[in-house]
Design a protein that fits this description.
By secondary structure, this protein is an alpha/beta fold. The chain is 46% helix and 14% strand. The chain starts with a strand and ends with a helix.
Amino acid sequence: MPKCDLNVHSCYSNRPSEWVLRQLGMPESYTRPKELYQKLKAKGADYVTITDHNTIEGCLDIVDQADVFISEEVTTYFPEDGCKIHLLLWNITEQQHATVQEIRNNIYDLVSYLNQAGIAHGVAHPLYSINNKLSVEHFEKLILLFKVFEGLNGIREPLAQEVTVMCLEALSQERVEQLALKHELEPMGKQPWTKSLTGGSDDHGGLYPGAAWTEVSEAKDIDSFLAQVMQGHSRAVGSCGDALRVSNSMYNVVYTYASDKLKYKAPVGMDLLGKIMQRFLDGENPAKLSLAERIGHVAEFVRSGKALDLLKPPEADPSINREILNYFLDPKVSLDLDRIIASEKTPSRRTFKMASKIANDLCFRLFNSCLKCINKNQFVESLQPLSGFIPIGLSVTPYIYSFYSLHGNRRLLERTAKAMMPDLPKQLQNTKRAWVTDTLEDVNGVARTIRTMCLSGKKQGADLAVVTSRSEISINDIPIMNFEPVGEFELPEYKLQKLSFPPILDMIDYIERERFTECIISTPGPVGLTALAAAKLLGLRTSGIYHTDFPQYVSILSEDYMMETLAWQFMHWFYSQLDLVYVNSEFYRQCWIERGIPSNKLKILPRGLDTELFNPKHRNENYWKAKGANGQVLIYVGRVSREKELGFLTEVYREVKKTSSRVSLAIVGEGPYKEEMMQLLPDAIFTGILTGQELGVAYASADLFVFPSTTDTFGNVVIEAMAAGLPVFVSDIGGPKELVAELDHCKILKAKDLRAWVGAISEFMDNGPSRETLDRTARKMQNERSWDRAFDAFWKDGLEFID
C-alpha cells in the first residue's frame, strides 16, 4: 500500500515553540533534508515530503527527486482571540507558499484560499493547545472548517489522539448542523460529518522519522495519493509518541547544538564527554570507555599542556568536567548502568533509566549534605549543596518538559469529550487511581487507613494501586508498586521515623505509563511531593488526606514558633495545590477554611472499622493480670512520642497513683519517648507493638482508654477502643473529640489540665458505666462503621471529580 509520512521536519524548522530554546538560538531540528529523505525511504516510504514550519526550503533541497512533493506546516490563528493552530499543506507550489505566508494570520482567510486553490490540507495535532488558548469552541470550529485531521502523531501521547478520533467518529449530520448554527459557519464539504484521518511522525530530532505515516489502498502518483486522503480513504498507521521519544529528540538537538557551537573552542575533555553523550543517546553504557579512548583522553591533556592537572587532588580541581568524568569512570557506576541496559529492551528506555539513576544519585548526595549541615545547626552552609540541584535539574529538563507537553491538556480533553460524545469515554473517567504514601508498614493510623481502604477497594473490584518507596515491603494482600529508595534519612528532631528519597523520574514515568487518572496523596513527604509533581506534569486529578497535624508536631518537638510557622506555610502550600482535600474531622475542616483553603475543596474522609477485631467479645479478665496489672487498667495505644502528650499522661498517672494503688497504666506501641517514659513510670506496662487478635484482646480487656493527644486529626485508636467496649477520655483539641461528643460515658477534657484529667479518671474508677452500657455503645459503633461502606463513599467522591 502506498504510504507517506505527512508530518516531518528538517533543519529548516528553525524557530522552536519553546521560549528558552528560541532565546538560545537553537533550531527545532538539525536533520538535513537529504539525510531525512534517505531515512524515510529506508522506512519504506513511497512518497517523501517535509513539513517545516512556515518554510519550504527543506523540500526545495530534495525536490529534484521524482517522489518528493513540496509541503509545509503553517501556523495560523483564530483572529477573535489569537488561538494558534497548525495546518499541514501538501503538494504546493512556491507561489502558493508565498500567498499562504501573506494571509496565514487569519484562519478563515487561509482556509478559504486553500479550498479555492484546491490545496490538500489538514489540521495537525487537533487537540494540542499550542499557546494554551485552545478550547472546546475552537475544536468545534475546526470541525466545521476542515475535512482532514491528523489522527496519529508520532511524538504526541496517545490519549489526545484517541479522544480526537472518538470525537470525530461520533459526529452526525444533526450535530454538525447544530455546530453550524452555534458558530454561524458554513460546514466545508459535501458530508462534513465524515472526516479523513492522516498519520505523521512529527519528527524533529532525526531519530524517529517514519514512526507514523499515512497510507491508502492504491495510488499511481502523488496527486492520486493526496486525492485519496482528501476523499477520506486514507489510514493513519504507526505508533504514537511518548515522553521518552520526545525527550530523546530534544537531547539529540541540544547535543548537536552544543557540539556545533563548541566545535572550535571546546574545553579539554569535551571530546570524551561527547562520546559519553553519544553512548547515552544510543542507550549504551556511557561509562564504558575503551582503552584507546582513555589513552586518547590522556594524550589530549598532554597535547594541551595540562597533564599535571591529572595529578591534582579533587579539592584543587573542582571543575564540573572533572566531577562528571570521575563519576562515569567509577567502576560501580558502570556495573549499575550495565544492569539497567540488560533489563531494558529499547534504547529510549535504557537512556531514560540511566538518566534517572545518574540524577537520583547526584541529587541524593546533595540532599544528604544539606541534611547533615542542618543536623549540625549549620543552616547557612546547608544552602550551598542546594545550588547543585540546578545543573542536575537542567540535565533532565527534556524529560520533565516532555511529560508536561504531552499531558498538559487533560482537562481540555475531558471538556471536549463531554461536549462531543454522549458518554465520557473510559479513558477519561476517574476509574484508575494511585494511592501514594511515604508510610505503609508503620504502625500508625495513616498506614492502617490506607491498607484497610485498599483491601475494601480490592474486594469491590476498584482499580486502585498503592505507590510507595520503602526499603522493605512485606505486605502482599493489596496491589503495591514499591520503588527502591535512592536512600533513606531521618528528620531532624524526629528520630526513628525514616523517610525515603524516591527515584523521582521513575515514579513519574510509572504513573504516566499506567495511565492513572488520579493521585491520592496521603503524606506530604518526598514520595507525596513526587506524586504531586507527577500529577501536575501529567494533568491528573489530585486529592490529599490531611492525616497528621504536622505543624503541631513541629511545635512540640522543636519548641520553636518560627519552625511551626514554616511548617504551616509548607502544609498550606502543599494542600492548596490539590483539587480535593480530605480531613478527619470538622475541627480540622474549619482550621483549613480559616487558613484559606476554599470550603468546596474540603471533605470529611469516610472512615471504617474492623468490627470483628475490635469487639467486646474478646474481653479476657486475666489478660492484663498476666502482664502484671493491678486493679483497673488504663490503656493508651499509639506512637510513643512526645507530640502525643505522653509527658502529660505520665504526670496524670503519677497523680492518680497517689490516691489509688488499684490502677495500672498500659502503653501499647513504640516510639522515641518509650525509653524515657519507662524510666519515669517503672510500674507501668509497656507491651511494644501489638497487632491482630492480641491487639483486639488488649483493647477489650482494659477498663479505660486515655488519649491526651492534641495533634491527632482523627484517632483510629479512639473508635477502635469504643468498638471494643471501652469508655474513652480525650482532649478538647483535635479531631478525636468529635468521635466521642455524644457519648455520656466518654469525656472530652481540657487539654493539659492536670486537675481535670486526674479528677475524671478518679471519678471513673469509683463510679464507671456498666458493662451493658459499654457493650451497647460498641454495637452502635460497629453498625455505623464499615470499611466497605467507607470505601464506597470515598470512591464515589472521585467519580464525581470531573469538571
